[in-house]
Amino acid sequence: MGTLGSNRKTRGGGASDPVGFRFYPTPEELVDHYLKLKKQDKDFKSDHIAEFDVCNFDPWDLAGNY
Predict the structure, then answer these.
(1) Which of 12, 25, 43, 49 is the most exposed place for a label (fewest CB within 10 A)?
(2) Is the pTM higher than 0.90?
(3) Whole-angstrom Cα distance, residue 16 to residue 10?
(4) How many angstroms separate the CA atoms of 19 and 42, rounded?
(5) Environment class of residue 22 by beta-carbon count within 10 Å: exposed (0-12), middle (13-18) or buried (19+)?
(6) Using an 8 Å Cβ cutoff, are 38 and 32 in contact?
(7) CA 1 to centroid of chain Cα atoms
(8) 51 vs 48: CA distance, rounded Å
(9) What residue segments make up the domains of the chain, in order of their start?
């Protein structure tokens, strides 16, 4: 599994990447990266990943709402 570097761009490549290089992380890599940051800083927030308490919802309502 690769590491998401802070010097990488999501679209296109970084300054040292070869021409035509594209960065397309897998969903697993994105979640792994997010969870590592979340574990290090409990106040870490992301505008791209919704957080909610799954215990407050019925299972069949989760997929429709999020």
Answers:
(1) 43
(2) no
(3) 14
(4) 38
(5) exposed
(6) no
(7) 14
(8) 10
(9) 1-66
